[in-house]
Amino acid sequence: MPRRSQEERTRSTRSALTAAARTLFAERGYAAVSTDEIVRAAGVTRGALYHHYADKQALFRDVFEQLEGEITAEIDTVFAAESDHLAAMAAGVTRFLDICQRPEVLRIGLTDAPAVLGWSAWREIEARHGLRVITDKLAAAVADGLVATPSVPALAQLVLSAVIEAALMIANGADREPTQQALTTLLLGLVTK
Question: Quick one: 182 exposed, middle or buried, by C-beta within 10 A (0-12, 13-18, 19+)?
Answer without folding.
Answer: middle
